Amino acid sequence: MRRVGIVGAGRFGMALAQSLAESGTEVLLIERNGSLVQAASGVVAYAVQGDATQARVLEEAGLKECDIAVVAVGSNIEVSTLATVICKELGIPRVIAKATSEMHGKILAKLGADQVIFPDRDSAHRLAHAIASNGAFDLLEISEGCSIAEIDVPESCREKTLAQADLRNKTGVTVLCIRRLDENPKKPRAVMIPGPNDQLHPDDKLIVFGTTKQIDALTVQD
């Protein structure tokens, strides 16, 4: 069973923890506020009260044994950056960090975050779905309720042309571009702007635009 550690039990952190727990993922939640820890104890497998800026606290809580760590603290940049650094130093395979601004995101990326997200609360269950299904996920909220996201090709659209998938009419989501694997696995994915007759491959990544609810519906429809 995959184990995910979440640092921070704010609105986004709790929404993510609940979605992951409901998907059957083992969740370790670390939060300084005791009342939030108590509230989370009935939701996740492990809820621990502690200071996320202390490496010893995170290690003793068991974060080192997690497959993925999500630093869900956004408003306190000091806690966010320190927790991200500690997670990387603990050797956690994948560290996802929440950012509240472009500059914050750049700092987290330079500190080694494998993935930086800019989510609103409603997108938490989409991240949970991606983690639970081992899918790719990235999100940039460009205005309230509207985002650009990177998602896997929905199962119902695989091997269809963009016209056949008809995502815009069926879901309201617009496909901006496709990131496709190169024949040489050592090379980065190629970025292409698709035409209506371009086929969607199962291992493609789609960069899409839409409202949070539209993207959510698309990523969980299968």
Key words describing this protein structure:
222 residues, alpha/beta, six-stranded parallel sheet, 34% helix, elongated
Structural class: alpha/beta
**Assembly status:** single chain
Overall shape:
elongated
Poorly predicted regions are: none
Given the structure, what is the number of helices?
9
Distance between the termini: 21 Å
Secondary-structure map:
Blueprint: E1 3-7, H1 11-22, E2 26-31, H2 34-40, E3 46-49, H3 55-61, E4 68-71, H4 77-89, E5 94-98, H5 102-110, E6 115-117, H6 124-133, E7 138-143, E8 146-152, H7 162-165, H8 167-171, E9 174-180, E10 190-192, E11 205-211, H9 212-220
Parallel strand pairs: 1-2, 1-4, 2-3, 4-5, 5-6
Antiparallel strand pairs: 7-8, 8-11, 9-10, 9-11
Helix pairs in contact: 1-6, 6-9
Could you describe the 3D structure shown?
The protein is an alpha/beta fold and 222 residues long. Helices cover 34% and strands 26% of the residues. It contains nine helices and eleven strands. The strands form two sheets. The chain has a six-stranded parallel beta sheet with strand order 3-2-1-4-5-6, with helices on both faces. Helix 6 (124-133) packs parallel to helix 9. The longest helix has 13 residues, at 77-89. The chain is elongated. The mean pLDDT is 87.
